[in-house]
Design goal:
The complex is a heterodimer of chains A (301) and B (293).
Chain A: H1 2-39, H2 41-44, H3 50-55, E1 59-60, E2 70-71, H4 74-105, H5 107-123, H6 126-145, H7 153-177, H8 181-189, H9 194-223, H10 226-231, H11 249-256, H12 265-300
Chain B: E1 5-9, E2 15-19, H1 23-26, E3 30-33, E4 38-40, E5 45-56, E6 59-70, E7 74-78, H2 85-91, E8 102-110, E9 113-114, H3 122-128, E10 129-132, H4 143-153, H5 159-172, H6 176-179, H7 192-204, E11 210-214, H8 222-238, E12 240-244, H9 248-254, E13 257-262, E14 265-271, H10 272-277, H11 282-288
Helix pairs in contact in B: 4-5, 4-7, 5-7, 7-8
The chains are: A mainly alpha (301), B alpha/beta (293).
Amino acid sequence: MKGKNRFRREYAGRAVVTAFGIFMIAVTFAIGIFLAYKGLGTFTTYKHSLMEFLFSAHWNPADDFQGGGAVGAAIFIVGSLSTCGLALLIVVPFSLASAIFLTEISPRFGAHFFQPAIEIFVGIPSVVYGWVGTSVLVPAIRKAFHLQVGYGVLAASLVLAVMIYPSITTVAADAIRSVPQGYREASYGMGSTRWQTIRRIVLPNAKSGILTGIILGLARAFGEALAVAMVIGQMKAFPRNIFSPTSNLTATIAADMGGAAEGGEYNTALWTIALLLFFISLLFIFLIHLVSGKVEHSNEK
Amino acid sequence: MNLQTKIAVRPDGSQTPVHQDLPFQQDQEAKIQTAYGKLSGKEKIKIGMQNLDLYYGDFQALKGINMEIPENRVTAFIGPSGCGKSTCLKTLNRMNDLVENCRITGKVTIDGEDIYAPRTDVTLLRKRAGMVFQKANPFPMSIYDNVTYGPKIHGVKNKAKLDEIVETSLQAAALWDEVKDRLKKSALSLSGGQQQRLCIARTLAVKPDILLMDEPTSALDPISTLKIEDLMGDLRKEYTVIIVTHNMQQAARIADNTAFFLLGQLVEYTNTTDMFNNPADERTERYITGRFG
């Protein structure tokens, strides 16, 4: 009797776990399908071309059901790419240095002070980052570079850099930690200095993990809306330099989604932006798999 | 390499395969008299330890070690797990520096120089006293790059010179014939025994004069073990070899001198023949006859 009971529990447990798993997969698919259903309207109902959406800078969708406006999202795409790219350029050296510091140079200090500090970073809501950005960073940039406004690409990039710093650092530190201790011992055992060991052994072997961290950070930066919307300036123009105000994909959705009539051209165009963001995140996930899969493969050889 | 083996009958009646050129057969004369016993070797003492104490935090892992290790001989450290033999080995190239809370008092000298003196260049020390680890740990790069790693960090850039180092090191580690056609292949494609010999080659590539081996065959199959043991006889001609081993037969087969550690103390240290035939200390006898540890 007892044995039978145990089997029943075994199956029940498995069924529950499987059900939750399938449910989450279903939700992901549902979101994708929903976004496609909403977002593809720009191309089907309102007859715009994909080329127009991706490469035209003319963004003036009609807020009605007749359509006939312009849905060129190039400005927002460029805005997203430039802010995220600049944010990465700023943050990667810091993240890498921090990750090396808290794993190789001072693990004890890292574990006791650095790690908790980084975790606090993660917990701060993005609206707070945005607010601090508008009240501290934006005036500071304006003063430092003698500009008329401090809002723009640089402000957005700096805010994003601070926001993605913890994710990249944590993942990179994990990657560095997972480099087998034997490699370090062998390197030190032959008379390498610590820096030689880090540069020639530790970093090359942690490369895929570090790249994964960078891609995760990039994905987070691409998806961040609120904080960026607060400091980017929300101008529908290409950035001329790193100080120009511009706009990006997420900030556009955040700013305009409330005002547009449901199902109208404007509303549909915003859904298309959401669909694009969904595709970009899929692309990032694909990249991560590519990067980490490559390493496993090379280890097998 | 001559892999022909013959079976030798040990004084206690056990049989053991030995190679004709094994050091144990070659040099049975004990010439150096120390406080512990007569050591095999020429006059030259390579490594000295005086009143060496080592602590991991509050735990004392080595207690007053006094030892003199002769040049161009194979010295085996034996003893049960946790007796301090590996720790003692790691004091010789200061790998213990990497362990937190590790504290050392006393003196360790190589060629008469105190290696714990404040201005010692640890990287040069480790170049002189190369180490081979328990688990073969080749870098995940090509065989060639593994061997050239050491020379490169010490500033060798010339391609011809590096090629030459690769060939001589791999030959010295008896691996050249097996890998000469695939030097660009990943080191991880080698078998466990080949990987360990690659690690030996990698260590030899920086031209050390001391080879520290921390249970180098404990993870290997008997044939790979035999190959590495066979190598020892050649290596001792150029290097001072110190090997930590769990395997007493291995010590008996390959070592000129053997040191027995117990609970952080050096219990007995003498030439291998005396050690295994008439140990002076009762604890040594119990250990080597398997009634202990």
